[in-house]
Structures are given as structure tokens and as C-alpha cells.
Amino acid sequence: MIKFKEKKAEGGIQIGTSSLVLIFVILALTVFAVLSLTRVLADDRLSDRSADWVAAYYEADCKAEEMLKSINAAVEEDKGNLASELSRITGGGYDEAAGIVSFTVPINDTMSLEVEAVLTDTPRDGRYYAVSKWQEVYSSEYEIDESMPVWDGTFEE
Questions:
Q1: DSSP secondary structure string, 26-49?
Q2: How many CB atoms lie within 10 A of CB 141?
Q3: What is the rounded distance in angstroms from the CA atom of residue 35 to the CA atom of residue 23?
Q4: pLDDT above 60: residue 48
Q5: Eight-state DSSP code of residue 146
């Protein structure tokens, strides 16, 4: 008796491999989409914080310029009570001996704009002052966080 070998189905539809590849491609694209979305949201939060900071800084800048304008007007008028007028405008930041006015304008809860100007006798470009300091400074309490034990370089015995 002659036995014939059973023929295996050749050329049939092989969907297993292509389905796995498709699932991994879709999974990879989904992961990249989620990562992209989180990055966009982080960038959006950062740009909002940056816009808020810029708006607050320029608001403080405008207030400082207005104070300098008031100082200039007081020096220009000089009705004999210049020291008291400048102290009133700057909140006590007038050093009569040095001829320096200084004041601080808050930017936000943690930063301030410090301004210092030297008064002059003759106007330059219509100003009786020259700005010597225009600086953002950290104005909040500085607290050192010592909650995490850090090695100080010595060995305990």
C-alpha cells in the first residue's frame, strides 16, 4: 500500500505576523502621541508662567518709571522741601548727603525691582537723575531645607 503524504496548505493567509506588527506599530504611535501631548501641555504651562512673569515685571517697571518721573518733577520744582518730598515719594529712600534716591517695587510674591538713582544739578535729556541700579532681587525669606541628610564628608566611628 502506498502512503501519500498529506499536503500542508501552502500560501494560505498568514495574518498572525502582520497582526502583531500592526499592534506594535499602533502601540508605538499611541505612546509617541501621549508623550507629545504631555510635552505640549508642559510647554503651555511654561509659556503661561512666562507670560505672567513678563506682565508682572513690566507692571513693576512702569511703576518704577512713574516714581522716577515724580522724583524728577520734585527735583525740577525744588520748593525748599526737597528732602521730605523725595522721602515721601520713595518711602524714606533718600540719602541727602550722597544725593541718592532708592526704592523697591514688588514684582510678585518672591521678587522685587530695586532702583537707585543719583540726583544731578543739571538736567540731561530732561532728567535730573541718572539711574545707577535697576535690578531684580529675590525678596522672600530664604529657607535652607535640611530635611534630607547629606553626607558632610566625615566618617562616623
A1: HHHHHHHHHHHHHHHHHHHHHHHH
A2: 6
A3: 18
A4: yes
A5: -
Q: Which three cell numbers stand for residue 53?
A: 512673569
Of the two residues 104 and 13, the one the predictor is more confident about is: 104
Q: How far is it, in rounded angstroms, from Cα 129 to Cα 101?
A: 9
Question: If you compute the radius of gyration of the chain from its CA atoms, what whole number of angstroms results?
Answer: 35
Q: Are strands 111-124 and 94-95 parallel, antiparallel or unpaired?
A: unpaired
- The pTM of the full predicted model, rounded to 2 decimals, is 0.69
Residues 67-79 have pLDDT tens digits of 999 999 988 887 7
Q: What is the DSSP string of 67-136?
A: HHHHHHHHHHH--S-HHHHHHHHHTS-EETTTTEEEEEEE-SSSEEEEEEEEEEEEEETTEEEEEEEEEE
Cell numbers given for 120: 544731578
Extract the C-alpha cell encoding 31. Answer: 505612546
Question: What's the confidence (pLDDT) of residue 68?
Answer: 94
Predicted pLDDT of residue 152: 80
- CA 9: distance to chain centroid? 68
